[in-house]
């Protein structure tokens, strides 16, 4: 659903004035894209939810300092990105220590996951997605598979909307070529582009 | 791999798919409710602290009590340490004085006169 940036500004102004309903409405608007973005960066549902929670706590605390003439999304996604990167770095250090102590069993886990996932077209698309360039994969997943607005994805990764569209286009072409010999092409739900706003 | 520059100049080189996030309305409604509730709870706690005179009184009383507790504990520790070092310094080193300080019973006269001199007395 397309969002009106001026409505964002009004909500931020109400939030700064202490209106609880404005907070709930902003969360309602942005929790989904923000959580999906955090999940792409962190790879864990609980971590993604925690980061988005922390980002909204910050938004509420700093509501008075936010510029209500500018859209709220890019500010929120930048905060989510910063918090997610911090958490990611901390966890990477922890994982490295754990691996050194226990020995690496990621390969076994990955092969078991792959066997379970290979059950459907969606799983097949996901598996083939992993072979794409990272930005193509990220943009395709959010825009096509998750129906997140192109502008939001652009704000998340700090690139232009046309670049996002280009990544999606290329991802679609690459996937079509990869899936053609397997299932005769990309499943119908991923072939059209009406969702790319 | 996605490369996002971090504030410290490093970069994230991992990127995950989002299949662990369910995409149904019930999940998003519940999550939004939790997030909004958490954010507002935090604001109400901070707001109460910042705006209420009673909050300032409570905070000042707590801080005062904590400071007083800390200073009492420090004084007690300091005085007991001084007392202990004084006791050690005042303990008599010779056998006669030790016998005189024996709390249960006075020393036998023969023990005082016939007792062999202690090592410290010999040194003197």
Could you explain how this protein is built, in words?
Chain A is mostly helical. Chain A folds into two domains: 91 residues, Rna Polymerase Sigma Factor, Chain: A (Orthogonal Bundle), CATH 1.10.1740; 83 residues, Orthogonal Bundle (Arc Repressor Mutant, subunit A). Helix content of chain A is 77%, strand content 0%. The longest helix of chain B has 38 residues. Chain B has a two-stranded antiparallel sheet with strand order 1-2. Chain B is mainly alpha-helical and 124 residues long. In chain B, 67% of the residues lie in helices and 3% in strands. At the A-B interface, helix 2, helix 3, helix 4 and helix 7 of A face helix 1 of B.
Q: What attributes characterize this protein structure?
A:
heterodimer; A: 197 residues; mainly alpha; Rna Polymerase Sigma Factor, Chain: A; Arc Repressor Mutant, subunit A; B: 124 residues; two-stranded antiparallel ribbon; 2 strands; 3% strand; elongated
Helix percentage of chain A: over 70%
- Rg of chain B from C-alpha positions? 36 Å
- List the quaternary state of the chains: heterodimer
Calculate the mean pLDDT score of chain B and round it: 74
Structural class of chain A: mainly alpha
Concise summary:
The complex is a heterodimer of chains A (197) and B (124). Chain A is mostly helical and 197 residues long. Helix content of chain A is 77%, strand content 0%.
Strand-helix topology:
The complex is a heterodimer of chains A (197) and B (124).
Chain A lengths: L4 H12 L3 H23 L2 H17 L10 H31 L3 H12 L3 H9 L4 H12 L4 H8 L3 H23 L4 H4 L6
Chain B lengths: L3 E2 L5 E2 L12 H27 L1 H38 L4 H7 L7 H6 L4 H5 L1
Antiparallel strand pairs in B: 1-2
């Amino acid at each position: 659903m397309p969002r009106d940036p001026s409505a964002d500004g009004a909500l931020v102004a109400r939030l700064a004035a202490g209106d609880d309903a404005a907070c709930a409405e902003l969360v309602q608007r942005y929790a989904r894209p923000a959580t999906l973005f955090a999940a792409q960066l962190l790879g864990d549902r609980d971590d993604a939810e925690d980061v988005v929670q922390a980002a909204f706590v910050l938004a509420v605390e700093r509501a008075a300092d936010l510029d209500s003439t500018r859209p709220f999304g890019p500010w929120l996604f930048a905060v989510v990105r910063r918090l997610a990167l911090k958490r990611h770095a901390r966890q990477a250090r922890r994982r490295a220590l754990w691996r050194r102590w226990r020995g690496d069993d990621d390969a076994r886990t990955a092969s078991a996951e792959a066997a379970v996932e290979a059950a459907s077209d969606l799983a097949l698309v996901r598996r083939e997605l992993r072979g794409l360039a990272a930005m193509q994969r990220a943009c395709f997943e959010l825009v096509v598979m998750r129906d997140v607005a192109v502008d939001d994805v652009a704000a998340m990764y700090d690139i232009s909307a046309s670049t996002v569209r280009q990544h999606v286009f290329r991802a679609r072409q690459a996937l079509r070529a990869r899936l053609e010999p397997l299932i005769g092409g990309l499943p119908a739900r991923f072939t059209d582009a009406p969702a790319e706003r | 791999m996605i490369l996002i520059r971090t504030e410290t100049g490093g970069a994230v080189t991992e990127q995950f798919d989002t299949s662990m996030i369910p995409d149904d309305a019930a999940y998003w409604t519940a999550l939004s409710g939790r997030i909004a509730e958490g954010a507002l709870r935090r604001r109400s706690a901070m707001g109460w602290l910042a705006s209420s005179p009673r909050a300032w009184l409570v905070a000042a009383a707590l801080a005062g009590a904590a400071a007083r507790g800390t200073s009492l504990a420090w004084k007690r520790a300091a005085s007991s340490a001084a007392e202990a070092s004084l006791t050690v310094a005042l303990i008599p080193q010779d056998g006669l004085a030790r016998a005189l300080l024996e709390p249960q019973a006075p020393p036998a006269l023969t023990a005082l006169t016939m007792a062999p001199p202690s090592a410290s007395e010999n040194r003197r």
